[in-house]
């Protein structure tokens, strides 16, 4: 079993996405390859979890009250 990596960011933090976040097919009701949040979109972390197999932190970010998207640390930065 892999030890969980401590998350860099916490619930409630305001963040900005560092790249276009695109639907990989796992986001229901939206076309695959559709942009869910363009680069620079602001959001708020609403939940912090971890990938089961790799223990990598996953951040659920609500972007401008439109979509809640799972993000990796390298896809977001605090504002």
Automatic annotation (TrEMBL):
- One annotated GO biological process: nitrogen fixation
Would you say which domain of life the source belongs to?
A: Bacteria
Lineage, top ranks: Bacteria, Pseudomonadati, Pseudomonadota, Alphaproteobacteria, Hyphomicrobiales
> What protein name applies here?
Nitrogen fixation protein NifZ
> Pfam families from the entry?
NifZ (PF04319)
Q: What UniProt keywords are attached to this protein's entry?
A: Nitrogen fixation
Under the heading InterPro entries, the entry gives: Nitrogenase_MoFe_mat_NifZ
- Family label: Belongs to the NifZ family.
């Amino acid at each position: 079993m892999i030890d969980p990596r401590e998350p860099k960011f916490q619930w409630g933090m305001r963040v900005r996405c560092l790249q276009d976040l695109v639907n990989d097919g796992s986001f229901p009701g939206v076309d695959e390859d559709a942009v869910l949040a363009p680069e620079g979109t602001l959001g708020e972390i609403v939940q912090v979890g971890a990938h089961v197999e790799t223990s990598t932190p996953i951040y659920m970010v609500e972007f401008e009250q439109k979509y809640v998207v799972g993000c990796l640390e390298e896809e977001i930065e605090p504002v």
